[in-house]
Amino acid sequence: MEALDPDLLKTFLAFVDSGSLAQAAIRVGRSPSAVTAQMQRLEEIVGEPLLAPQGRGRGLTPAGEDLVGHARRILAAHREAWLALKGARAAGRVAIGTTQDFADSGLPDLLRAFATSHPRVRIELRVGRSAELAQALQAGSLDLAIVMRQAAAPDEVGVLREPMMWMCSGKGLASRQEELPLALLDPYCGFREAALAALDAAGRRYRIAAGSASLAGLRTAVNAGVALTLRTPRFAHSGIVEASRELGLPPVPMAEFAIRLRAGADASAGDLAALLSGNLALSQPPR
């Protein structure tokens, strides 16, 4: 009997949670052809087809549906074993910085797993914007940080790629206007730059109807229907949804985030960085 490779199971669950092989490829950081080859290899090991044509895409076969629960349990056990061996005698402090997107989605479950396996390690969490977190990392007040990526950095230990998405209130905009109302974070913000560049390239008229220094303020403006904004699917909760295609909004690029580890950080910080690099992409909400 051949063992079920955790890497193959991660890709399989990325397909299950995202709904397509193309999105799965983005989540696991591989090419679509590599993901297809991984799925074929997993089917060879299992001895059953796991995916089958479904409409324009592919869906799970009965065997694929059966595998989902097993795959989640295997990966959870694999992660717990790795963490337990790493953290049994670990102590000290780990200071981590993250943007609000990950503080709300994905990071809590992984921090819980880390705290369970590293019970003597003190976690100091800082939530902020990418620029200030990057500065804190360079100054040595943070051990690792999850920040929006502008360019490759020598301290990167992982890169996440997530789709940008136009967002608005589930109740729609409060009023219809000739100029598209935008809610944006104050400069500098990668999402702000991407939104304005896409609208300018499309020749779409817009105005900045709401500005904020924080995601909490941005969320309030969008929830109120004052304006729409550009974020990743992690922002789509508590009344905020993907904007209707009827608005004719232009396409936007992928967002990139880096997991950065300070040179000289303790082993516990490296353990947490490795945990995030291997699992945070799988925490993306389904589209």
UniProtKB/TrEMBL annotation:
Gene3D superfamilies: Periplasmic binding protein-like II, Winged helix-like DNA-binding domain superfamily/Winged helix DNA-binding domain. Keywords: DNA-binding, Transcription, Transcription regulation. GO terms for molecular function: DNA binding; DNA-binding transcription factor activity. This is LysR family transcriptional regulator. Belongs to the LysR transcriptional regulatory family. It comes from the Bacteria.
